[in-house]
Amino acid sequence: MYNVIYKHYEGTMDNNKFLQKYKLKSTPQRLEIINILTQKGHSNVETLYNNLKLKFPSVSLSTVYKNINTMQEKGFLSEVKINGKKNVYELIKNKHSHAVCMKCHKVIDIKVDASELLYQAKQASNYKLNESSVVFQGICPNCK
Ligand SMILES: [Zn+2]
Ligand SMILES: [Zn+2]
């Protein structure tokens, strides 16, 4: 199926070293955020918050937002924007596209090379384009 490689899994880097690499202090909550995202692949803020609360009952939503912002600034968390749905977050991985189910909102990574699309967009727009993000929307096998 799809196997998009998490960048921090190259080698034998554990989550502590991963945070070190990005010059972020290792805190239990940050480690747990990484755990949750590694397991789920993608998660919106509410789901992250609810999962964190299981381990850290006193965690606040604003702490979750703060950590997400910091991790985004450091460049190892990225946001996936989905039309009409809550944005989800994921750990930085090799380039990939997304497919989202419009019924259950499940988001998966798909290995689709968007570089041809980027080339076409450059030709069509005359813009100096260097980034693209592709999100396919439809119905997943479970909801079919
Ligand atoms: Zn579905
Ligand atoms: Zn993804």
List keywords for this structure.
single chain, 144 residues, alpha+beta, Arc Repressor Mutant, subunit A, Dna Ligase, domain 1, 2 domains, 3-stranded mixed β-sheet, 39% helix, binds zinc ion
At a glance:
The chain has two domains: about 5-90, Winged helix-like DNA-binding domain superfamily/Winged helix DNA-binding domain (Arc Repressor Mutant, subunit A, Orthogonal Bundle); about 95-140, Ferric-uptake regulator, C-terminal dimerisarion domain (Dna Ligase, domain 1). Helix content is about 40%, strand content about 15%.
What does the model show?
- It is a single chain.
- With 144 residues, the protein is of the alpha+beta class.
- It has 2 domains: 85 residues, Arc Repressor Mutant, subunit A; 42 residues, Ferric-uptake regulator, C-terminal dimerisarion domain (Dna Ligase, domain 1).
- The chain is 39% helix and 15% strand.
- It has 5 helices and 5 strands, in the order ααααββββαβ.
- The strands form 2 sheets. It has a 3-stranded mixed beta sheet, with no helix packed on it. A two-stranded antiparallel ribbon has the order 1-2.
- A hairpin with a 5-residue loop joins strand 3 and strand 4.
- The radius of gyration is 17 Å and the shape is globular.
- It starts with 14 loop residues before the first helix and ends in a 6-residue tail after the last strand.
- The mean pLDDT is 87.
- One zinc ion binds next to loops.
